Amino acid sequence: MRVVQEKFAELDGQTITAYTLINDHGMEVTSIDYGCIITRMMIPDRDGTIENVVLGFDTLEEYLQHSPYFGAVVGRHAGRIKNGEFELDGKLYRLAKNDRGNHLHGGLRGFDKVIWDSEVKENADSVSLIFRYLSKDQEEGYPGNLKMKVTYTLNNDNEFTIIYVGVSDQKTVLNLTNHSYFNLSGNMKRNILDHVLTLKSDYFVELDEQLIPTGEFRLVENSVFDFRTGRKIRDGVVSKDRQNIIAGNGYDHPFLLTKNHHPQIILEDKESGRSLTIETDQPSVVLYTANQLSGEFKIRGINSQPYLGLCLETQGLPDAIHHSTFPSTILEKDEVYRSVTKYKFSISVKS
């Protein structure tokens, strides 16, 4: 186990560093301290060919100009907040509006667009990268000085774990996730339409025309939202279900997870043999199939296009502050927010 550090770029007089966590089996995870962005995940296929399985860029300039949250930690609140405002204890808080009059993924300068303090921790069977950031009171409109700590850990079992910890000196809202776009074909050789996804979920959250939750939980049964026994992503792209159409012909939906600390999410690419299993303590995962990914830029030489990757954003529900039936994303003063998501990669033998 080891960590390699190198200069990635400079921004406003500050050095951006790239850290590569490497285990003894050829798995590598590279992250930069701008936005805690995961730029690469190098994973072997069934033939032993090691390739990148996430979307990202090679330069900071590309992240600044084009990135749709590739690989970043997003917050303070992942997902959309309707009208960019909410009330706590009778006080109205107005947030930055960056999505058709709504607030999305922390606003104009969320956690994905700041430089985090970073340090490395090495152990015999794991290596960790620890990021820290102080989000000051009223940053993007949120109340409270929020101390954040995000830890990325890679071990020799090909497990990559993210631990989020936050404490605020005022009552606030907090909902964090990582926004990596996965493509298990390796180096984006194919799109993700034939990836097979399994979700332990009986319900998904209905969205309105602006992709804001309506508050209704819909049963997945007898629909293309039923991933309980595995389903190709393609099914939702060609679906005539209104929910798929308003999302841009695909998925951009929260799914309620039926179990915690259990393999709730499995993504497979049959051709490469790569499989990703995700366990989380979060109540939901947002499945986004890159329906809105534009063709206005290149990603490591490949034209950006819809369905080139998919996101599995483990988190609380978007807009939870406006829905009393949703699990709460309110964080009390001095309360410790802690969340863990584990990603495990494996290889299937060709049948």
Automatic annotation (TrEMBL):
Active-site annotation: H179 (proton donor), E313 (proton acceptor)
GO cellular component assignments: cytoplasm
Quote the catalytic activity from the record.
alpha-D-glucose = beta-D-glucose
The pathway that the record names for this protein is:
Carbohydrate metabolism; hexose metabolism
Alphabetic keyword roster? Carbohydrate metabolism, Isomerase
Answer whether the UniProt record assigns the keyword Isomerase to this protein: yes
Q: Which GO terms describe its biological process?
A: galactose catabolic process via UDP-galactose, Leloir pathway; glucose metabolic process
Report the SUPFAM superfamilies cross-referenced here.
Galactose mutarotase-like
Q: Give any GO molecular function from the UniProt entry.
A: carbohydrate binding
Binding-site residues, beta-D-galactose: H179, S180, Y181, D252
**What Enzyme Commission number does this protein have?**
5.1.3.3
Record's family?
A: Belongs to the aldose epimerase family.
Q: Which NCBIfam families match?
A: PRK11055.1
Q: Mind telling me what this protein is named?
A: Aldose 1-epimerase
The species this protein belongs to is Tepidibacillus fermentans
